[in-house]
Amino acid sequence: MKSRLALRTVALGYLTVLLVLPVGMVFYRAFEHGLGKFFDALTTPQAQHAIGLTLLVVAITVPVNTVFGIVTALALERRSFHGRAVLERVIDMPFVISPIVVGLALVLVYGEQGWAANALVASGIRVIFSVPGIVLATMFVSLPFVVREVAPVLREIGSEQEEAAQTLGASGWQTFWRVTLPAIRPAVAYGVVLTTARALGEFGAVAVVSGHLQGQTETMTLYVQDRFEGFDVTSAYAISVLLAVFAMSALLGMTYLDRRRARRS
Amino acid sequence: MAIQARSITKRFGGFTALDDVSIDVPAGSLTALLGPSGGGKSTLLRIIAGLESPETGEVWIEGRDMAGVAPQERGVGFVFQHYAAFKHMTVRENVAFGLRIRKRPKADVNRRVDELLALVQLSPFAQRYPSELSGGQRQRMALARALAVEPSLLLLDEPFGALDANVREELRAWLRRLHQEMPVTTLFVTHDQEEAMELADQIVVISQGRVEQAGTPSDLYDRPVNDFVMNFIGPVTRLDGRLVRPHDVQLQVAPTGPADEAVVERIVRLGFEVRVQLVLADGQPVAAQLPRTEAEELELREGDIVHVRATRPASPAVAA
């Protein structure tokens, strides 16, 4: 009994020091000068632009990486091909490479001195110090989440249900929509939450490729850093709170949908 | 012939699962693929269904060459050992799956599903999910699902393998009746010789990727072509250097012809049947099986010395 109490105290204490206290302080600071000041900080044109840009990045990154993630997981678990083992390793690269290195790598390829510079200039597309670069960087760092959630589930459920669907006349596409996707849906949902959280919060890789142009290439995280260094801490904390709220709504939304589905079946 | 497989060979890496296998399955029959686990029976079934492709050889179903024909187009119903139930669908939705895929009118689908649910005795469970069913119920649901699309062939891969002994017994009897009512050509895989003997009217014994023998249950029991089939298809014991069935070993107190002396080591009474374990003079064990009345007449006791001989010559193939 005593040891269980001690264990609980240690766990809670650890969480408090590491998580609850700092996040709580951010919330406290954001509302320190009242709700009015909080909303003022969120409604400046630069703040509005940063919020819009971050939401745009999320809106592109999450669907693209979800589709890519499901396709890759299916390829890894349902097909045998040359280079499968290589793909398996490459997928995890964004997890092991520091985001700042990702940013630099993108500059090396797509920057003004970069490897693809000529082609990009010719077609008039600007990647680095522009929105496409930010999207690319975010997609890169949040690439593995859906694959890593979905692949183990695919392995666990095995291919018998899919084979049964085939012998019952279902085409590959019908089998995917009616049998495979419903089975992996919770894993996809969790992958989407993680991808969303990472896309919202990415800083390092985005910082390198963005160029910090206020009102043009500044995402919410970059805006927070900008305000913080400019001693406008209320704005910094207000945007931080909004970032936390976005991420938590994604988590709660998915949990809610998942529960509703669980109740139905 | 409903199914003809010709010279099928299949390898997985360095392992040869099937080595030049040919089988014939007569239309309307209930045929068993019998053999030890890992012998290639399931692989052959999956090749017939189109779920695996053979390296060499041909599969013909109802006179049609199946080369390049997808599993969807083969008109086979397949039942898996572990049911392969669609977990997120109700029993009704599971059974309706194939008909919905074929875009049958809703009224037709409902009528047909009702019929099938009644046939497999699952009508009260139509709105349940597979997780709320017992193993036997899940397997009946899987059967109904396979039958819904009116396949010309029914392929069952160890259909009762994951079930308890008494449920297995029940489902066997039920499948036999179903086959009489609805004579769809059925090919099933099993490693249980009793199951094969009880259900099938045709048995193909497969071991280590090869067909050992094909025939009716009594063919295989009485005329096995080799020791492996003899051993696999029923109990055996060794007497005079040959394999014989224990019920063909005769015990006598006073010999009426050439016989060997043996000591009764142990007597097991199983109701009607009595099993006797004996040891020959040279130390070789022999097993005998006799009806209770005969055992009582002999007044056998452990430690007695009796004379043993085979009443029925072992099959010519074995003796040769």
Structural topology:
The complex is a heterodimer of chains A (265) and B (320).
Chain A: H1 2-31, H2 34-43, H3 45-78, H4 84-90, H5 93-96, H6 99-110, H7 117-123, H8 131-141, H9 144-157, H10 160-167, H11 172-201, H12 204-210, H13 220-229, H14 233-264
Helix pairs in contact in A: 1-14, 2-14, 3-8, 3-9, 3-11, 3-13, 6-8, 6-12, 8-12, 9-11, 10-11, 11-14, 13-14
Chain B: E1 3-12, E2 15-25, E3 30-34, H1 41-49, E4 56-61, E5 64-65, E6 76-79, H2 91-101, H3 106-119, H4 135-147, E7 153-157, H5 165-181, E8 185-190, H6 193-199, E9 202-207, E10 210-215, H7 217-222, H8 227-233, E11 237-239, E12 242-244, E13 249-252, E14 260-270, E15 273-280, E16 285-291, H9 292-298, E17 305-310, H10 316-319
Parallel strand pairs in B: 3-8, 3-9, 6-7, 7-8
Antiparallel strand pairs in B: 1-2, 1-4, 4-5, 9-10, 11-12, 13-17, 14-15, 14-17, 15-16
Helix pairs in contact in B: 2-3, 2-4, 3-4
Intertermini distance of chain A = 38 Å
In what range is the share of β-strand residues of chain B? 25-35%
CATH architecture of the largest domain in chain A: Orthogonal Bundle
Q: List unreliable stretches of 5+ residues of chain A.
A: none
What does this structure look like?
- The complex is a heterodimer of chains A (265) and B (320).
- By secondary structure, chain A is an all-alpha fold.
- Chain A folds into two domains: 1-31; 34-264, MetI-like (MetI-like fold, Orthogonal Bundle).
- Chain A is 82% helix and 0% strand.
- Chain A has 14 helices and no strands.
- In chain A, helix 8 (131-141) runs antiparallel to helix 12 and helix 10 (160-167) runs antiparallel to helix 11.
- The two termini of chain A are 38 Å apart.
- Chain B folds into two domains: 3-228, Rossmann fold, CATH 3.40.50; 237-319, RNA polymerase II/Efflux pump adaptor protein, barrel-sandwich hybrid domain (OB fold (Dihydrolipoamide Acetyltransferase, E2P)).
- In chain B, the strands form four sheets. Chain B has a six-stranded mixed sheet with strand order 6-7-8-3-9-10, with helices on both faces. In chain B, strands 13-17-14-15-16 form a five-stranded antiparallel sheet.
- In chain B, a hairpin with a 2-residue loop joins strand 1 (3-12) and strand 2.
- In chain B, helix 2 (91-101) packs across helix 3 and helix 2 packs parallel to helix 4 (135-147).
- The longest helix of chain B has 17 residues, at 165-181.
- Chain B is elongated.
